[in-house]
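User: Second chain of the day. Same drill as before.
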Amino acid sequence: MTDAEPERVLGELELTRGLTIQMTAVGTLGMIVGWACFAGLYRFATGNAVSFDFFPATVGWIATPLDLLIVAFLGTFFLVPHEWLHGLAIRYYGGEPRYGVGIAHFVLPYAYATTDHEFSRNQFVVVLLTPLVAMTAVGVPVMLALEWGWLALPLTLNAAGAVADVWMTVAVLRYPEHVRVVDHETGVRILGREADAPRGLSVTALVWDGLAGAAVAAFATFVLLALGGPILLTALGVESLTIGTPGRLTYLFSFVDTPEEVSLGVGPGVLGIGGLIGLAYAFVRTYRREGPPPTDPA
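Assistant: Same format as last time:
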């Protein structure tokens, strides 16, 4: 920084009430996408559907309540490694992490890892994405190798919870590398020169882009499978094909064309595909709408 270009606050990314509601909507979309991806991958790799039957039927009626308790545990305990990994990345860059929990505007429960340490832009991106990358990279091979289908639940919730981290990554990447980022419990503060400030990011636009993209992609996938699927499979001489598990969220498509039976089915898996495409479309639109980040001065 020079005297002619004093440092100032370029942006405050705060968890406002409106942002909380919008992130809840996008997180729900991320949950649908995550479950379709992880449960579908498990079904494809092992040939088995994800099951949460931890206790045999011989235990009696108490098996179901015990199964539900374990599912509830899996649905919340993932927060511990998620925030610990944020903290591990913070320590790597010289910070001292603090942990806590809260409820944003009485709408969205959340946990956090924060610090008083200042980060460069790229360092903060690593802090943001470490839990998503690390838990997915470790969890998926373990789930498939040991055939622990129940891991699809914490992996799904970890990915859904990381939607806010991905959005914040997109936000800070709008600034040049030399800006400094200060984290706190409910958001981040970005410091730099006045010339470093890009145009503001619209979370509302992100939400609507995501939902609209998901709806269009889901409908297009449905039409493609319902109309194009039978034509293509018949031309290839395929008499029977099932993708996903009928009766479950991962069920995508089934086709039978034999002398004994002719049937076609398209399931809720199209929502997962639509959601994945919608989220990708929303983040790409957000980045491209604002143009490239300012370049560092020579």
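The chain has a mean pLDDT of 81.

User: Great, on to the next one.
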